[in-house]
Amino acid sequence: MPRIEEANGLPGATYRAKFLPPRLDPTLRSATAQGPYSISFETSATITAVDLEACFDLIASSSASAYAASSIGWSPVKKRKEMKLPDLRYLLLKDSITQIQGFLSFMLTYEDGHEVVYCYELHLAPAVQRQGLGKYLMSLMETVGTNAGVEKSMLTVFVENDTALKFYERLGYMKDDYSPEPRKLRSGTVKMPTYVILSKSLQEWDTDDDKSEDNKKGQV
Prior knowledge:
Largest sheet: 7 strands, mixed
Distance between the termini: 45 Å
Structural class: alpha+beta
Radius of gyration: 19 Å
Number of strands: 9
Strand content: 25-35%
């Protein structure tokens, strides 16, 4: 069975044990009086309706306007349907009273023929931003990708979200070849894409064979 299909077919507990570290909770403590954070792993089948709605509210409050202004568009019905895709996985950030303060959703999948781990959504409540939690959640997702043996991590960012673009650039993400390019319409108008696809390599390829071949090419 192909690697992606095999991984996505694993029960949630097996998936977590195989691809994530034993300890998920960050060592950071909340800046509020609500105590330390905790992180839990869920699948689209095991996440509770309450937690799923809390995640949806974070998306709607922070990104609905950006979706609406983009070529993707904003549809609460479609977004809720996407959030229940069978292969989608969740990392839920909660405070000490178990309220959702942030989350990252991701999927092991294929993009342009490549095996990847794709970040669907990353959102943090304003009160817990700028504490390293987004970076930490991304590192957990990348650990899944590395342990699953996929080639790279990918995500989509709206071009108007300069803060997010700079955040992902600091984490080593660059524009992917799969990202849409400007299109020239028949009228001559250039239509710029409203989003960019970024990626980051997760595997360190052994280049010894390549070097050997280069050396051979240099021999007479």
